UniProtKB/TrEMBL annotation:
Family under the similarity heading: Belongs to the STXBP/unc-18/SEC1 family.
Keywords: Protein transport, Transport
Gene3D superfamilies linked to this entry: 1.25.40.60, 3.40.50.1910
Protein name: Sec1 family domain-containing protein 2
A GO biological process held by the record: protein transport
Keyword Transport: yes
Amino acid sequence: GCDSSLNLTSQKATGVVNGIFRSLRSIARARMHMKQFNSIHNPGSNTLQEASYKPLLKQVVEEICNPDRPDPVDIEHISSGLTDLLKTGFSMFMKMNRPHPGDHPLLIIFMVGGVTVSEVKMVKDLVATRKPGTQVIVLSSALLTPHSAIELLFATDRLQPDTDI
């Protein structure tokens, strides 16, 4: 709401900062229903008092490439055909394991909203070290730069469709 710093008032600055925190809380609430991927913040422990940041994309890829292969909690297998549908239906009555996302030699990740170059490199490196031989394809709706990521988070109304077609 300000065209220059001369017109900036304390009330306008407070309104903008409150809007930023509302956006951040909304983003956090979007993951509240998840059991495994509900936070990107690790507060540390009693012995190690160092807080850390673990990106959501890194958490998902590590879960997919986990060699111990527990059943993923927040990642769901969706049946693609009649045969898969029958297998899924019978698995309710018999002890059949659901297919794990890491079973296939091709991993396709699509990031809605955008992905940065560093995130693509992180995915490539994680898959190469934890699951060698797996081909990974990262697709996205946009390639984000630091400026565009901040602009998408705080400067646009994400609930209104883009009508600049």
